[in-house]
Design goal:
By secondary structure, this protein is an all-alpha fold. The chain has helices spanning about 5-25, 30-50, 55-80, 85-100, 105-115, 120-135, 140-155, 155-170, 175-195, 225-230, 240-245, 250-255, 255-265, 270-285, 290-305, 310-320, 330-350, 355-370, 375-395, 400-410, 415-420, 425-430, 430-440.
Length: about 450
Amino acid sequence: MAGPSDKARFYLEQSATELNELERKKIFTREEIKSIAKKRSDFEHIINARGSHPSDYMRYIEFEKNIDALRQKRVKRLGIRHKGAGQRSIYFLYNRATKKFSGDLTLWLHYIDFARKDKAYRRLNDIFTSVVRLHPTKPELWTLAANYFMDSQADITNARSYMQRGLRFCKNSEDMWLDYAKLETIYVGKIAGRRKILGLDIDRTKKQQSGDEDTDMIALPDVTAEDINPSLKQDDGVDEVALQNLASAPVLTGAIPLAIFDSAMKQFPNRPKVVEKFFNMFAEFDQLACIPRILQHVLDYLQQTRPRAVENAICSFRMQLFGQRPGSPEFPVVLGDAFDVISSAIDAYPSEATRLAEVAVRQLLTIQGSSADMDSALQKAIRSTLRKYMKALGGTDGGKVASLTRSLVQEGKRDDARALVPLSIKTWSANEELQELKAALET
């Protein structure tokens, strides 16, 4: 087996100094130090040999993580001060690994995850710059970088930049267009939330027009939130005048998510399923004042371009119920009209009956979960309607019910998943997979 490279030998020599310090402070015994040194030497031989694999680096990194965790535990127990070089060693190994196996996305994702947990923000900036340069056609990397800047740094400027640059390379990625629109909608929510805390929330009805489209960049409204208040960081001083000005800026009217939707539709013409995905994503933000206008815009586009698509019926159904309070006097009529749309769609599109039934079941589960202020007659009617559509969904084998249950659990809607059990008890009793799901839900 080939000996370690000069860089590896230098690393081992440097680590020897650290090991001597650990022994001197009685953090590790002499025997433990010898064992650590031998293990490191073995790993260095392995990763520098021909035919080494990314998994070899991962085992080495895991070893170093365990050593550093044990060091920290003993330092705490001994009540002494010792910074250690564990983190530096791990970063050094990740850097070597990603240089040698730059095409291995798993390595890069582990590297990003480690640096993020370590709150190594400056290093993360460099990592993201490197990984998207090496893998520009991987939409998940651009999205990961954008979400990092938004979630951890409250930096919409960098987040938006990553999304727009990524779309130059990944313009055919539905998920990336959706993720970008979602990011901008989240940003609307952050600003609206801060304005509400400050008592500055007012009606926002002024419509804004987006600018001319550029060949490289998505056309966005001329004024954006960072032009007025570039940072959303919680420890920044708050300019109340700036936040008041946002009431008429495109960021709160939803003009930016709408601009992204319109650009996406130019990329995906005659794709009603993509339109439905946008509708469903926007509908998740039901507390934002601009969302009804956005949803209506999406529905109008669908009705104009694909009036006979089944997605038209699905979005129309959801639009009728959006924002409706189950306890309001008008709700029973609204609910009946909405389900007339679904019933007519099942008759018109028999091949889509199962899909439409799932849409109905999901909506009814949501309504049932917020039915505390509904009268008993309406609650009974909802349970009856749920059983009807569960029967249409489940048939006799229970496979579709199992699939829906798993999806609800994955989406964090365990209460909705549990609510399915008594609605089709015979199907659950006869299906082994459903029995396993039921047991899991009861834990």
